[in-house]
Protein 1
Amino acid sequence: MERTTFIPEKYQNTLFLTAEDIKEIFRLGENKTYEYLKTAPFKVEKIGNQLRINAKSFWEWYGT
């Protein structure tokens, strides 16, 4: 049986999430968010000086 993940409407058509999005989803502070993203179990890419989280990878992980 396949598990479905509820993706809030705000994020449904996005390819990437930002650190700010992760902060909001998990209700973390800024420092904890960046600390967590260093070892996150989903795809995180650094583009310039910004972190981008692969949305598909994140929501697949979040749903498990």
Protein 2
Amino acid sequence: MPKSVLRALAPVGLLAAPLLLVGCTDGGGGLDLGALTGGDREVRYRCDDDRSFRVSYNGDRDRATVEAGDRTYRLSLEDRDGSRRQYGEDEVRLTVDGDEARLRIAGGRDYSGCEAA
């Protein structure tokens, strides 16, 4: 390739390089629910005490269906702050931040120290 063409393309390469690097990092935040596209998305979380639960998020990520033990809970998005989302309904709360989650069920033992598996 002639040097004049290479010199003309050099600025384009300099501008494109940072964009390519952005695709290589997750920003350290782990799982980003907001970046998920398409229909429902299911995530399994494993907790410190070897328990686990499964969450199905709808396409808009404003609803979460939680399967924990032998129970199923349908939760709505209550709060969102950056990568942290809080879902709830009655006495059940699910807090998700990146790939970490905590599930609180009134009258039961919390699922804490949970990470996406």
